[in-house]
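Task: encode each sequence below as structure tokens.

Item 1
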Amino acid sequence: MRDERAALSRQLAALSGQLSALSAGDERRRRLAVLLTGASAGLIPWIVLLAITLPHRYVAGHWTVTWVGFDLALLSCLALTAWLAWRRRQSVVIFAFTTATLLSCDAWFDVTTASGRADTIIAIASALLLELPLATLLFAISHHLQYLTLRRAQAAHGILDAPSALHKLPLFGVPGNPRRKEEDARDHDDARHAAYAGSRDQPQHPAPGWPPSACPRAA
């Protein structure tokens, strides 16, 4: 058992050495946050400009290609999500969320681009009865599977008191420095093994009164 623990510790140490430095990961995360913040800020004036300048009606070019291409993408995501769910693959989390997003976009554009009373009623009914309920189901499945994955990652790292809400969980559900936690775990195991080895080296004294004296025979 002790040899197995030592081998596991060496494997974890080797794996930790192959991972990128935490400082490098923090730097990439900051760059991504700055990039996304800049994109969000730049989108605000663009939305205002579109709201002011776009005409109320517009003759779209390549209308058939637009909707056929979109529906083909939606069909591919639906089929791939079904296959991944059947095969129980971890990628189903990503594709379930993507498919739900496409369904929501489909409902939005169907309703907002509908022309005439009949088309509008059909688009609203399709959105309320088909697209949005299925999108809600896929969003819930994606959220639930991601939550289970993160909780298992926490349990594997011995983290039992972390927040349960996904928006409060640190990235990958593993707060703190994983390398430091691994070193602390190795130190704890070494100390426990040393204490166990020391207890085995000490002479074993029989308990008082052992072995018991022979019972007197009955007269």
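Item 2
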Amino acid sequence: MAVPVAHRDAACARPPPGPRYRLPMKPTLKSAWREWIKPFAVFLLVMAPLRSAVVDWNWVPSGSMKPTIMVGDLVFVDKLAYDLKVPFTTRRICNWAEPSRGDIAVLFSPRDGTRLVKRVVGLPGDAIEMRGDVLFVNRIRQGYSIQDPRPFLRDMPEARNPVVAVEHLGGRDHLIAVIPDRPALRTFGPCLVPRDGYFVMGDSRDNSNDSRFFGPVARQDIVGRATMVIASFDTTRWLLPRLGRFLHPLGPKDA
């Protein structure tokens, strides 16, 4: 029996499309570039020159600056303290200050280029000498005030009987440590600092690789001044935070 045309058309008509469930689209390379790669690349392009020429921060891995700076300290480095350099180089664009005696300088070792944090003790033209761990600058003995070492023993496990003192270095007071039971270079010099050089030493005088061994540091290899401990974590105690050292200034009087 023939089906009427109207009924045939109705029978063959498809129902209107309903809402479809779509699977989540996999992130494409384009969306990944827009949402992740591009912002991260812009961040790196901004931060890398900033850290190279303006400000930086350094984790301290060694105890050569104890008791002023401890292992596990994160120190803030002011790279505009003395000059402005071309990013990623040591070439100076302009210069407005020179390192001062007592500054905590961040520098490159003249021996192997390692980045170091040391105390500036000798300026261009100075004669630097040590006699039994006592510093002489231009034949003038620097003054010392002995301190109680007990508050520092917890962070100086390498020293059984350290001597801690405030060194009065040209009006800049700071702490130093001496480890009598460790073999060390306690007498040297006098050493004449060249015209464009600086003599640097660690505050832990018997546990520091410094200008006594690699000589004065050229001015161009000094990249900035450490001004603050941003944060500190005890590497001998499961990185427990030393809350008392957070935002601790490293100013003219570090003691």
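Check on item 2: The CA atoms of residues 55 and 78 lie 5 Å apart. The two ends are 110 Å apart (CA to CA).
End of task.
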